[in-house]
Predict the 3D structure of the following.
Amino acid sequence: MKNMDLSYYPGCTLKTKAKNFEDSAIASMAVLGVNLVELPRWNCCGTVYSLAEDDLIHHVAAVRTLVRVKERGNGRVATLCSFCYNTLKRADLLMRNDPEKRNTLNSFMDEEIDYNGEVEVLHLLQVLRDDLGWEAISRKVKTPLTDLKVAPYYGCTLLRPQEAAIDVVERPTVLQELLQLLGAKVIDFPFSTECCGSFQIINRPDFITERSQAILGLAQRQGAEAMVLSCPLCSFNLGRAQNELIQRDSSFQSMPIIYFTQLLALSLGIDPEICGFDLNFGEPRSLLESKGLIT
Amino acid sequence: MRVVISPQKLHGDFVRKVVEVSGQNLNLCYQCGKCSAGCPMSFAMDLLPNQIMRLVQLGLEEDIANSKTVWLCASCLTCTARCPKGVDLSRVMETLRLLTLRKNKDYVELSKLSPETIAELPQIALVSGFRKLTS
């Protein structure tokens, strides 16, 4: 059967620091029957959704990307980066629900076709759960992640605000369900929706270390061997802080930070080279080797 | 917390500006404290988010300006998700930052970051950080 095409918006970080996220996602989706087709002429989404009523200019970058999708004519776009997902999704909701701001933005962007909310913005986890379905994915699993104990970590932007949430805001299960069907042991992790401190990394990196200690520490106490997530900023914050946490307390164990698509790729039997584990924090290789998942 | 309230300190125009830019009805807040209970950055704040809400209701502009709280907000939206009165605190915090940033004052400076740090940070960290903390 021929693979289905799905428009794909990478965003800036997926082309550099999180190339491992992109490569493992594209390879996995191809095996699952979906070609992620990168949008032509995409630009940065702006990374954060503007929260001021009178600040419309910062919606332009996101809306322009939605116009690019609309021009393709298929009406759906998949994202991987949690920040991009949130920004594009909220920009789409604004254009759907606020006629006055929609008119202002469309008239301002007069060289583009009008955007009126014609595009469905999806995160890849939604495509996996809602388009493909867990059963179809589990039939393709070749190497179950047996004995791998993981903490699912959602962070903020997949779940908040409510209208942009891909799952139940306070008690999401989508990552857990995916990881379980891939054969991993998912630990109970009450901090799975806690914020890592986000962009405060450029202002107060010391506070990010505090947040990371709380989040990683609880995951470790609950028995997790790795943290699985979807956000390149969470990955950086929770990963980088570990150096200092180890220096501060020798009993602190480093914890691999892994994108969910990397584990998906491994379980689908995709070459681990494609997963690019060299870019990960917390040295996932030795853990995955000890479980016989890579050699 | 001890706050001195005097007619000279209450700025009605400030309150109107916050309402206009945030789009929020500030009077809905009844000080339950749920925002502060769930705030991931509250450990580092000199004033808690619910205290900022009370100060902004009264128009105590200087007391807010003297606090670091709005600059530590990470826009995680936990408060927004949990407020029983439906106040979007993330919009109030953003407004309070913008009212300063729009006077052409930056809270962080790119030149203060080391080249190593800039090279190491993912793009979304740099773009979002400077979107939130500079004019």
User: Anything to note?
Assistant: The first helix of chain A runs from residue 19 to 31.
